[in-house]
Write a structure and sequence with these properties.
Two copies of one chain form a homodimer. Chain A is mainly α. Chain A is 59% helix and 6% strand. Chain A contains eight helices and two strands. In chain A, strands 1-2 form a two-stranded antiparallel ribbon. In chain A, a hairpin with a 7-residue loop joins strand 1 and strand 2. In chain A, helix 6 runs antiparallel to helix 7 and helix 7 packs antiparallel against helix 8. The interface between A and B is large, with 46 and 46 residues. Chain A binds a DNA duplex (30 and 30 nucleotides) through helix 3 and helix 4. Chains A, B: Pfam families: HxlR. Chains A, B: InterPro entries: HTH_HxlR, WH-like_DNA-bd_sf, WH_DNA-bd_sf. Chains A, B: Keywords: DNA-binding, Transcription, Transcription regulation.
DNA sequence: TTCAACCGATTTCAAAATGCAATCAGATGA
DNA sequence: TCATCTGATTGCATTTTGAAATCGGTTGAA
């Protein structure tokens, strides 16, 4: 648990915490897939993370303050993982990563519809989504708009093979 | 040189290309430090990249289409590395990474002044910087505004211990 | 009460990535 | 001639990652 950094550059510090192949995948699934338990994160992801890597990343992300862990009252062994404000602050970053990936890499249609909506929705949509995430993960006030539902509906519409009617 | 990806998710694809501790450091130094040669990238960075890692990343980034390599006419052994449109498209991502790092991590004052300016400058400033990068790296038309100079001047002002007067 | 299924991990071991130091051959310039 | 600089490469130790099996406790249905 060394707390020495290579430099005080904001880009470098961000990379030292998030610069690997799995950390942002875990946060992505918690954020956009609403997966809150170990098993959900382990089995419901396309990329097939190994259980030891998942356990390690959850621990690291907790140490760095991006997520918290709590007992799930419904099951004595279940742990409920939640995003902190620090992780919720990554929404714009995810939006830009998605936009860049969509523009330059061989994305699939189903898995990029969310990125497309987030890109066109812009900062207003990101802010609404962040408010919603605060409600879900931090007990904040429940907002009127559910960006999560919009994204989910669009995804399911594409999977069903229909043209998704983008909500106004 | 396998071209198989874990999934078609834009976030995942972006991570598979940029998700390590060094790739974005190299691009950052080319972009914000205007370092174009192997030696410059090797020695002028705070984070002290190893020469074999640098060689490997330059090769990888070329294969993925983020940078190009050309002979430097001034020296038969010198190679000149340039950013492509793909890498220049990362400017907004760097801006958000810098903003997030500045907010949540122990950044140093000198090394975060650029991130601060980029954050307050917003999309207009990012676009101007991208135009300038196209001029420098891709032979595009030279723009009137030099964001690079603004960032560099602000950095040097902080290093000199003065309060930087943020250009209007 | 039994028991299979599920819970969040941990263990083991092989493979790959990383880090460091030394080194390389060709080009340059004094 | 020769020290210096160029973009790398090599060898080797350490660290990280990945896959599969396993762990002890919990749950809910038979």
């Amino acid at each position: 648990m060394k707390d020495e950094y290579r430099s005080g550059c904001p880009i470098n510090l961000t990379l030292e915490i998030l610069g690997d192949r799995w950390s942002l995948i875990v946060i992505r699934d918690m954020m956009f897939g609403n997966r809150r338990h170990f098993r959900e994160l382990l089995t419901h992801s396309e990329e097939r993370i190994a259980s030891n890597i998942l356990a390690d990343r959850l621990k690291r992300l907790m140490e760095k303050g991006l997520i918290t862990k709590a007992d799930d009252p419904s099951h004595k062994q279940k742990a409920l993982y939640s995003l902190t404000e620090m992780a919720i602050g990554l929404v714009p970053l995810f939006a830009h990563m998605g936009a860049w990936g969509r523009r330059h890499l061989p994305v699939s249609e189903e898995l990029s519809i969310r990125a497309e909506l987030l890109e066109y929705g812009g900062p207003a949509m990101w802010a609404a989504f962040m408010e919603e995430l605060r409600a879900i993960h931090m007990g904040g006030p429940k907002p009127d708009r559910s960006v999560f539902s919009e994204l989910q509906a669009a995804y399911e519409a594409v999977v069903a093979g229909k043209k998704a009617a983008v909500p106004a």
